[in-house]
Design brief:
The protein is an alpha+beta fold. It is built from 37 helices and 19 strands. A 6-stranded mixed β-sheet has the order 4-7-6-5-1-8.
Length: 886
């Protein structure tokens, strides 16, 4: 693998107590340990590898201090050796070889003009931020070879004479470009030119006008209005970029004469109206045709609305009867006029010949002017102008009118580095079905790729517009191929995040692109999934991602300031991956406020919480009443009311009928069967018609909608208020589980306490077996107390009597399965030397196992418990649970 080169940046540091640590001291301390540290949010650390070269830079002093070779990839030191070396305990350690500390630091100021990564020497400090910067081997060697030790202080205090004596005026020479006088071009020439020698650069946006925009433009030409100027660029022998023809032009002939920088939309609109190529304008379903309504013009003298658009191509006689001139006849308008005159003479004998001649002259004059008289001015940039300058001009002139998107601007900017972004996007869209589908409805999907890259690799993980636009410099890229690697990562991560969101079982329950709670969360999720995929503790990281995701949804975290929130969330969750105690603010906030969330008031379908609840229902299954299919297998199902909102049955007048608590996913067939009926009416119909009268099967299906037995009871009584109250409790419990506000233990205790007790007993047996084997050996059974052994042996004898075939040797673990809860307590207490460190107190063991026994027996025998017994039992259950699961 090729060796890479980096600048590692160190600066003075201020402690929380206000004390200062010099950057130079930090550097010398770490060099003595042959190590370096990188903050966990510095995503570029992931690219460091063994053998790479580093030069160290001291910010504030503006000088390079020395070099080293990377001896290890960045890692978190689990041994504890380096925990006090760094200012941040989560810092990633990098081991070094061949550490060289220069006796004389090398100032950066004399090198500014020669270092290629510094694009603007007036603000060079911005290129040395973020902890680490990748540089070319040439720049690296330039720094190492420097012998210019002029200090920056001395340099800034030098005299004007000294300054002028060192200026290279040859490098500052400026040769202005001479522009020709503006010229004008007729429509006839425009149509001819776009079919021959005029082309469009491939960083232009696609044709984006709808049928009305084309119609309005044609009407302006009819009325002889000024329609703006074109900006062209004279072509030279070596065309520096990919060119495409105007949309609709097939097999353009002739050498490239001009490149169209401004005017593509207008030229394409003219070509569309005059040539009728086979595609619809934006937003249309089929191609359309344009006509000049001369009848209205002659009758009323009106020019507003004079140009008409129609989906039908009319025949000549139809246009003659209506006096509608087809724009696609403009090239041969005289032939149409001749045929119109002949038609009127032959079929309209009552019309005076002079009237026909007047009509001809009026129409002919107008059409002649449109085709061969109306002129559009244009300015042509000289062929000597460089591509980088042209791209900048293109960006600036397109800030007027319809603003260019960030993606449009990136097409122009990245072209400077020979990166053909449009081709990259077309390939990404073609090969990634989810990205392709989302892009049809979510314009910013293209930018989400860049935001994913920025979150992962920008020194400050920034996704702000200015930082995305400057992504090439911000990522310290050196080539287009290097950018392509980042692009590939961004595309793959984005596709993975969309797949995770639309996973209705193990993901986030998003049915389709229109059901995403917050779109700006997509690139954050993409970056976090990529980051988690490179870690050993993947399962832990994925669980934390899920807790963050649902926390952000149910606190409306992305309702404003999305760019800032995206960066903060990404940084927080990445740190949380490795530090259990460093819970992100978004998660802490959600756990704090979730009890106060009033789902009853959530009624707007565009609300993130509304959509989030529907996603949770989808993950539960949302089995359709009619078909029994889960939403996963019937994504065409849509959201619908459980209590119908028809005013005829009273629920439509209820103030909360539109609440999310009254909504779920249902099919059209279900909606038809239950339409305009109360639950007390339609539920028995479903049970009879679709579940063969099996009410239990229908109730089981309802669990996939957060409708338990209590909520079902409210349904069949048409008790709306009772139903939403129960469902509110069930859904909020699920939200708590998803954000980690309610432990899995608490959820199991609430939902399936008997199963939890059974699972705990199995864990206790396994726990005792492991500890006793470790302390007494694998044949520990003979060393247990005689009371336990006698009780178990008696149970084994009874078992053999009932099942003689089972009379064989059984393991110690199998014998433990014949113990009851108090036997477990006796085993622990009689082997206290083995268990003391784990349980701490004999009295606590006796108390909790006794409580656990009473609680278990009450559950198993369905015996009523008072509140004290229940709370004591649950507390003891959790006490034992936490110990055996530690």
């Amino acid at each position: 693998m090729a060796k890479s080169f980096y600048i590692c940046i160190v600066a003075d540091h201020t402690n929380p107590d206000g004390g200062k640590v010099r950057g130079k001291d930090i550097y010398l301390s770490l060099m003595a340990k042959s190590a370096w540290g990188l903050h966990p949010t510095v995503a570029a650390r992931a690219k460091l590898k063994q053998g790479d070269g580093i030069v160290f830079y001291l910010s504030g002093n503006y000088e390079f201090l020395g070099t080293a070779e990377v001896a290890s990839e960045p890692y978190q030191d689990k041994t504890g050796e380096s925990k006090d070396w760094y200012l941040n305990p989560d810092t990633y350690r990098v081991d070094l070889l061949d550490v060289q500390i220069w006796e004389r630091p090398k100032p950066i100021k004399p090198l500014l003009a020669t270092l290629s990564f510094i694009k603007n020497t007036a603000s060079w400090g911005t290129y040395l931020q973020g902890g680490i910067r990748k540089v070319t081997e040439v720049d690296f060697n330039t720094i190492l070879a420097s012998t210019d030790y002029r200090s920056i202080v001395a340099d800034t205090e030098s005299s004007l004479a000294d300054f002028l004596s060192e200026v290279d005026f040859a490098a500052a020479q400026f040769e202005p470009h001479s522009l020709d006088s503006p010229e004008r071009v007729k429509i006839q020439k425009i149509i001819e030119s776009v079919q021959r020698g005029w082309r469009i650069p491939n960083f232009q946006r696609y044709f984006d006008w709808d049928r009305e925009a084309i119609r309005s433009f044609l009407e302006s030409i009819f009325n002889d209005y000024y329609v703006g100027a074109f900006l062209l660029w004279k072509s030279n022998d070596e065309i520096p970029l990919e060119l495409i023809p105007v949309k609709g032009v097939e097999n353009p002939r002739g050498e490239v004469e001009y490149i169209v920088l401004d005017g593509q939309q207008r030229m394409t609109a003219l070509y569309y109206a005059l040539k009728s190529p086979n595609y619809p304008p934006r937003g249309g379903a089929k191609r359309c045709y344009y006509y000049i309504d001369f009848k209205t013009y002659l009758e009323k003298g009106e020019t507003d609305g004079i140009v008409l658009v129609d989906n039908e191509l009319l025949g000549n006689e139809q246009t003659f009867e209506r006096l509608w001139f087809p724009f696609n006849k403009l090239e041969n308008y005289d032939q149409w006029i001749n045929e119109l005159e002949d038609y009127l003479i032959n079929t309209q004998s009552a019309i005076d010949a002079e009237k026909i001649r007047s009509l001809r002259r009026t129409i002919e004059k107008r059409l002649h002017h449109i085709w061969n008289g109306f002129e559009i001015p244009y300015v042509a940039l000289p062929r000597t102008m460089k591509l980088a300058q042209v791209a900048d001009i293109f960006e600036k002139i397109n800030t007027k009118g319809k603003p260019l998107s960030v993606f449009d601007l990136l097409i122009a900017r990245l072209l400077k580095y020979k990166i053909e972004l449009r081709k990259l996007w077309d390939a990404a869209s073609q090969h990634n079905s989810l990205i392709r589908r989302y892009a049809k409805k979510v314009e910013k999907i293209k930018i989400y790729i860049f935001q994913t890259i920025s979150l992962l690799y920008h020194p400050a993980n920034s996704v702000k517009r200015k930082d995305v636009l400057n992504i090439y410099d911000n990522l310290s890229l050196n080539s287009g191929s290097e950018f392509n690697d980042f692009w590939k990562t961004g595309v793959q991560s984005l596709e993975s995040s969309l797949a995770m969101m639309e996973n209705l079982r193990d993901g986030f329950g998003v049915r389709s692109e229109g059901d995403v709670p917050f779109l700006p969360m997509i690139p954050v999720l993409a970056a976090l999934l990529d980051e988690a995929g490179r870690r050993e503790n993947k399962a832990v990281c994925y669980e934390k991602i899920k807790q963050w995701y649902w926390s952000a949804v149910f606190t409306n975290a992305y309702s404003s300031g999305a760019d800032t929130q995206m960066t903060a969330d990404f940084k927080d969750v990445v740190v949380w991956f490795d530090d259990e105690t460093n819970i992100p603010r978004a998660v802490r906030q959600a756990r704090k406020v979730i009890d106060n969330l009033d789902l009853l008031e959530i009624t707007q379908s565009g609300n993130a919480i509304y959509r989030g609840v529907l996603c949770l229902i989808a993950m539960q299954g949302a089995f359709d009443f009619e078909t029994g299919l889960a939403l996963e297998n019937s994504r065409e199902n849509d959201k619908d009311h459980i209590f119908p909102h028809s005013v005829n049955h009273g629920f439509g007048k209820h103030p909360n009928v539109e609440s999310i608590l009254n909504m779920t996913w249902l099919s059209k067939a279900t909606n038809i069967r239950k339409s305009a009926k109360k639950p007390s009416v339609y539920i028995p119909e479903f049970i009879t018609a679709r579940y063969s009268g099996n009410e239990s099967a229908f109730k089981e299906m309802l669990y996939g909608h957060f409708i338990d037995d209590e909520a079902y009871g409210c349904l069949i009584k048409d008790d709306f208020d009772g139903f939403v109250a129960v469902r509110n409790k069930l859904i909020k419990r699920e939200i708590k589980k998803q954000i980690g506000g309610e432990s899995r233990f608490e959820a199991a205790l609430e939902e399936e306490p008997v199963k939890l007790v059974d699972d705990l007993e199995a864990k206790i047996r396994k726990f005792l077996d492991e500890k006793l084997t470790e302390g007494q050996g694998s044949n520990y059974w003979s060393k247990l107390s005689s009371g336990v052994r006698q009780r178990v042996e008696e149970k084994l004898k009874q078992r053999v009597k009932r099942h003689p075939s089972n009379d064989n040797d059984i393991s110690c673990l199998e014998r433990l399965s014949f113990c009851d809860i108090m036997d477990y307590s006796e085993i622990i207490l009689s082997n206290w030397s083995i268990f003391e460190k784990t349980f701490g107190s004999k009295a606590e063991v006796e108390k909790h196992f006794l409580n656990l026994k009473e609680y278990r027996n009450a559950l198993k025998h369905v015996r009523a418990m008072n509140n004290v017994e229940r709370k004591q039992g649950e507390a003891s259950l959790e006490w034992v649970y936490l110990i055996v699961n530690a």
